[in-house]
Known about the structure:
This protein is an alpha+beta fold.
Amino acid sequence: MNSQDSLVDVLAVLWKWRKKIIWTTAAVAIGSVLLSLTLSNYYKSTTIFFAASTDINKPEQVFGLTNKATRFYGDDFDNDRLLTIASSSELIQFLIDSFHIAEYYDMKVNTPKQQFKLEKKFRSNLEVLKTKFDAISLSFEDKEPEYAAALANAARNQIGKITLNLLKSSQKQRIELYKGSIQEKTVELAMISDSLQALRKRYNIFDLESQGELLSTLATQAESELAGTRAALAKYRTMPKQRDTVQVLTAKVASLEKKLQAVLGNEGNSMFSLKLLREGMAATEVLMMRHERLSRQLDDEKEKLRQINTVYASNAPTIILAEKGEIPKVKSRPRRSILVLAATLAAFIFSALGALLFENIGKIDLKRIKGA
């Protein structure tokens, strides 16, 4: 038997069973039409938005403390964060509670299994995708078009709020760190100030630079004047009848020596002297340097705290809206014509195959098939 004969046999069988095939196909077509008419219409509302860059929430970018250009649109990392939040249980639970989804779907949630089924059904109607233009597309499908639009927009807004809360949580941690550091440095600065004051009082130091210059000048002047007076005294001692002058110069030399020793600090009752200054200079300079460095750090951290507090209170946007969810005017499903055509075609194919199988069932050699 050639292929032409086989084709003729097939057509012959189909012609023989034509009425049953037609009736079966027609019945399925009519049934699918009736069934499709009972299906509810679903409407899809879609909102599109972009992730905002975290740069607009960074104090160094806001206050122009960096040369890096500020980005306003987020990168892949920012998009991934939004996509993660969009699929999080936090968002799903918020929407379920806010829109009373259990009552709306007429489902009970008395057990964890029932809660799981509710979330699963709700998630099946919520779709979040990343578009080819790096935007986020969020869609919700429901029987009521107004309900679909309201939920899609609420989901988008809540994603922005959750993202903002995450950023604020990070900012709050930085604020607490700055506050703790400022408190520690304030206490340390007070201790250094007390130690510095004690050193100044002990060594009678009011200003290292000016006091050192003053004492050095006084010492130089005293030494110079003492040397000149001693020379004059030696000269007058060689002259006759200069007893009174010698006595005056001798007293002046003694006074200048005492003054010089006081400036040098060789006398124990000297309140201001080079000796005292040199003894307290090293420790005072160390404390002054620490005090100055710590003061700069404290001022810097106070400024950073002020800046981050400003950003923390600003509520900068975390998403950039491109298109809000509108109330859909055209249903998204079901596609009734496609369902009817698919069911009708399937009915025709399977009824035809059934006819061929039924017609040739007696001609099948089971022993041959088993041997093969």
